[in-house]
Amino acid sequence: MKKEFILILLLFTIISCSEKNTNNDKVKLTEQIKDKTEVKKQSDSLSMTEIREKLKKELGEKYYAPMKKLTPKQLAQGKIIYEDRCAKCHGLKGKGDGSYGKGLTIPPADFTDSTRAAFYSDEARKQIIRKGILGTVMFAWEDKLSEKEIDAVYAYIKTFSKSKK
Ligand code: HEC
Known about the structure:
By secondary structure, the protein is mostly helical.
């Protein structure tokens, strides 16, 4: 009898601990968003076509630069970064269905949508990761991730649209 009691107690402790963790994550993310994005009014956000034009101007020739080939090790690193930093919004499988993205006016991008994946160039999407998208909760990552980490996480994102074909 005593043993069972201890077991149940243990189970409760584990459950409450894991809940605390996700809550903490959410708080961290909310703080990050608050001080980083200055989420502007909805009316300030641009359409995808406008964003693409802006990125073409910003990047010039670099817009069409081909992607470097990454090693499996870098791809594995990208997966870790993705699951840690991006999946809460973009979803573990990249469908844009992460818990934090629910109810947003501009929902997180669905990376499994191959038409959408081809809308911007590779370099443009990496620039979005660096600089964020004004007027959405997609904020800039350039001060949190190194250029190598951005390469890795981007290469991982690309696997979502590839595997669907
Ligand atoms: C707080 C939620 C949130 C987090 C965290 C987040 N994103 Fe986003 N992301 C968004 C939203 C919202 C958009 C805008 C979708 C749109 O423009 O329609 C977006 C757009 C993007 C786009 C451009 C759209 C496309 O189809 O290419 C890329 C690339 C992207 N995110 C990558 C990332 C990466 C990489 C991470 C992690 C390092 C990340 N995001 C973390 C919410 C988030």
